[in-house]
Amino acid sequence: MRRYGMVIKIKPEKLEEYKRLHAPENHWPEVKQAIQEAGQSNFTIFHKDDLLFGYFEYTGDDFEADMKKLAEKPIIKKWLALTDPCQEPLETRKPGEWWAYMEEIYHND
Would you say residue 21 lies in a domain? Predict the structure, then answer.
């Protein structure tokens, strides 16, 4: 299992919409299933100021291939069409990233 942290900006005027999309009563089971099938678990998003911090654990064998397959699913494309306009990528992200992946510095079980 590998842990991933990632960060992106949230547009202040879109924060309430983003929260609404992620509220339990608006949950899309197909999105959750696709994320789990891609080897991700414990997927969590936190908010502070103008930032979103995402965390998940990955249990697959080929992260790049699994993320590519996930991104190609129609339900994920539909979901991202709603959530991406709420976000603003960091200028310091690597090429090809939307959320900027972070370096893990410390972990304590």
Answer: yes
